[in-house]
Amino acid sequence: MPRRARPSPSSDHGSPLVATSDPVLLEAALRWCAAAGATPDVAHDEVGLRRSWRTASAVLVGQDLARPDLSRRDRVVLVSRERESAWAPAVLVGASGVAVVGQEDDAVTEVLQVLDGRREGCLVSVVPAVGGAGASTLACYLALGASGRGLGTLLLDADSSSGGLDLVLGAEHAKGARWPQLLQVDGSLGASTLPRVLPRAHGVAVLAPGAEGGLPEAVGGVLDAAVRGFDVVVADVPRAAREQAADDTLARSVLTVLVVPERVHAVAAGRRAVRELQERCASVVAVSAGARGGTGATAVGELLGVPTVARVRHERRIGLCVESGRGPGRSRRWQRAAADVLDLLGLEGSDGPAR
Length: 355
Fold this sequence. Notes:
Elements: E1 17-19, H1 23-35, E2 41-43, H2 46-52, E3 59-62, E4 76-80, H3 87-93, E5 97-100, H4 104-116, E6 122-128, H5 135-148, E7 153-157, H6 165-169, H7 194-197, E8 200-201, E9 204-207, H8 220-229, E10 232-236, H9 244-252, E11 255-261, H10 264-280, E12 284-290, H11 297-304, E13 308-313, H12 316-323, H13 332-344
Parallel strand pairs: 1-2, 1-3, 3-4, 4-5, 6-10, 6-11, 7-9, 7-10, 11-12, 12-13
Antiparallel strand pairs: 8-9
Helix pairs in contact: 5-13
């Protein structure tokens, strides 16, 4: 598969700006910014707009002040009283979208996107061919490996029946939101908000069902915020899952990694899983889990018909570390497998702070 360029953190270098002399547009824009958790500067005329046009982190410009001679820049939304007449001035100022008075949900979404100002991060899903394959362990090592490269990383548990990846990572007692607290998310969750409300362990944010359990039927709003708020999102998706949450996650994934033990029955299950996943995912690869007397990694790749990109082996000490609340610990074999997957994705590391 083609290598993916390393995501880079956003470079917000100033406050957002609302520029309009229209009191109706001003009131609406300030309301939308407040809903997005931002406090903007305000310019009431063309002079103030031009003064801050280049330095603002984002601009919400009223249709009344839209001018064709403004220099081109990113992260601009045109604010208008009605949509039909807004597109021509939006094109003039190079706006990425239009926010219309009275269309609150759409307007807040536009404002959130322009305030977040981030390219989408990389979403990779890990799926087990059978129970106990080690998919949750690999997901944790992928998240830890990405964080170790300076990338803002989210470990996302998409299995409503699991014990919880916060337990595996050693974050079960860390303060922060779990899936039950996000059940009412309707798509307006900000990318800058999500990293602040989630628990963290070992430099990784984690979103898991928690003690209460349960996932929303659809997770599209959270996934939108996740891929804008983090450089890398690693999702642990249950095998043979047909829930909407799993479908949403797999459909958004750049890469899906199937973990297959080197056992005849597991490889047979893996072949079925590959056929299903290839109908739902952009790209599928396998990681084999070694077993004494098993088929071997080469046979796994040949029988599955997809590349086997790494090999791991069960290690008792990983379970002991998890049971003691320390996370999965350090295993060179699992760290190397995670590094191989991250290298396949082109995630070489960040030059700036993890977001």
